[in-house]
């Protein structure tokens, strides 16, 4: 083999290593994510248009369905996480994928707002609670050493697959045919069935046994420091909402930048996430590393908002350049914030309760999901540059809270040795032939 051929092969390997983990369960999980991202991209890009154009729903009605789904997912995240711990995350994740497939089939027959509301609520709940169960599955399959890095691989691949599927959905929207729209639903349903089958090929993660009688059941909803970490960490997810909704609306209504620039800004975001997420997450597998990344997250998001404030009353070229810089900063905040979330979510949770703790951590998204879209579109639109500076103040305040709440959570963790002893005692109590506790 020539030297140039060897260099080309090494280049291909380094490129693949940025997108794929080593062969094994991790790569299979990434494959699941890739298939799911293609299905999600098809539905998310074309579903709302179908319900508006073909079914005749108003944008407000479509938004209500999505909001109901978000609230239900927040409420049911902890119970689903508990089920993942008790019955095993692999089967729970696969069942939720099949539930999502069933709702996509149901979507084909939706012809009224009432049916849409039921479908959207159940579909969104299956989707979001599936993330909770999958987080426990990733932790169980990959262990402490590999779960944060694999989460980064999965997010990188998801963004790439979602972007490709969105382009395909754009073709369907351009044709505007009912049969093609329904093809998006069927395609996503088939993808979810395939994903469920792939999940079941992963190694089995043993379910967590019940606590011995007389011992208080471990409960994430009583872990106030962990809940506070989740709420502060969730504030960082307002950043991607700013980029996806606030920046394009601001560009079109308050700047002289070319309207097509909005699409280019999202392309910058997608490429950065695909190629940088794994690299950025390498230091987030400890609480200290994740906490440090979270501080950088809030700092860069605050700076991004301040930069965006200067794009209003400037020439078109300057507005475009300023928003491009802001987009890079928002995207750095996004990839740093996600890596920090994985580290804090996993490392501060007991190993025998990753499911229910993941469900509690997901409640931190409440403000970003429910109030975020209104906040990031209304405040800059009504107040102009001052609105952007107010968003910067929000992220600066989050920065001030980040360190103290994380240190509080660290101080209140159960020592690893004590947790291992409790788990061993629990296993002994549940083993065949074990002596039942005295009444």
TrEMBL record:
The chain crosses the membrane at residues 28-52, 64-84, 104-124, 152-174, 180-202, 223-250, 262-281, 293-310, 316-336, 357-379, 385-403. SUPFAM superfamilies: MFS general substrate transporter. InterPro entries: MFS (IPR011701), MFS_trans_sf (IPR036259), MFS_Transporters (IPR050171). Keywords: Cell membrane, Membrane, Transmembrane, Transmembrane helix, Transport. It is found in: Cell membrane. It is a multi-pass membrane protein. It comes from the Bacteria. The keyword Disulfide bond does not apply. PANTHER family: MULTIDRUG RESISTANCE PROTEIN MDTH, RESISTANCE PROTEIN MDTM, PUTATIVE-RELATED-RELATED. This is MFS transporter.
């Amino acid at each position: 083999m020539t030297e140039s051929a060897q260099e080309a092969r090494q280049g291909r390997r380094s490129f693949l290593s940025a997108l794929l983990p080593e062969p094994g369960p991790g790569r299979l999980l990434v494959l699941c994510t890739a298939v799911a991202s293609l299905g999600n991209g098809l539905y998310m890009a074309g579903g709302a248009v179908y319900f508006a154009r073909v079914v005749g729903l108003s944008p407000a009605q479509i938004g209500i369905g999505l909001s109901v789904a978000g609230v239900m997912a927040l409420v049911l995240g902890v119970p689903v996480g508990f089920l993942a711990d008790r019955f095993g995350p692999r089967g729970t994740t696969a069942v939720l994928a099949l539930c999502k497939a069933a709702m996509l089939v149901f979507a084909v027959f939706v012809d009224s707002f009432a049916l849409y509301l039921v479908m959207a609520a159940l579909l969104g709940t299956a989707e979001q609670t599936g993330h909770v169960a999958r987080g426990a599955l990733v932790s169980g399959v990959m262990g402490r050493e590999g779960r944060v890095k694999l989460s980064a691989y999965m997010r990188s691949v998801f963004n790439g697959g979602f972007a490709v599927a969105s382009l395909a959905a754009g073709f369907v929207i351009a044709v505007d045919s009912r049969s093609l729209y329904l093809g998006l639903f069927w395609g996503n349903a088939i993808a979810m069935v395939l994903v469920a089958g792939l999940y079941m090929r992963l190694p089995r993660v043993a379910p967590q046994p019940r606590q011995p009688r007389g011992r208080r059941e471990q409960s994430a909803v009583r872990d106030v420091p962990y809940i506070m970490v989740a709420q502060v960490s969730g504030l960082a997810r307002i950043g991607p909402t700013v980029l996806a909704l606030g920046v394009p609306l601001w560009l079109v209504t308050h700047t002289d930048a070319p309207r097509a620039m909005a699409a280019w800004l999202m392309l910058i975001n997608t490429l950065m996430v695909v190629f940088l997420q794994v690299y950025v997450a390498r230091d987030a597998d400890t609480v200290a590393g994740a906490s440090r990344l979270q501080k950088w997250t809030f700092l860069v998001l605050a700076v991004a908002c301040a930069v965006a404030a200067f794009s209003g009353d400037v020439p078109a070229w300057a507005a475009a350049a300023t928003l491009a810089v802001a987009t890079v900063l928002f995207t750095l905040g996004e990839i740093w914030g996600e890596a920090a979330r994985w580290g804090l979510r996993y490392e501060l949770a007991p190993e025998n309760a990753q499911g229910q703790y993941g469900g509690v951590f997901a409640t931190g998204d409440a403000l970003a999901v429910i109030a975020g879209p209104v906040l990031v579109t209304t405040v800059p639109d009504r107040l102009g540059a001052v609105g952007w500076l107010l968003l910067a103040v929000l992220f600066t305040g989050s920065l001030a809270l980040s360190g103290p709440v994380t240190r509080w959570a660290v101080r209140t963790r159960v020592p690893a040795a004590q947790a291992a002893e409790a788990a061993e005692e629990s296993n002994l109590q549940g083993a065949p032939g074990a002596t039942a506790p005295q009444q």
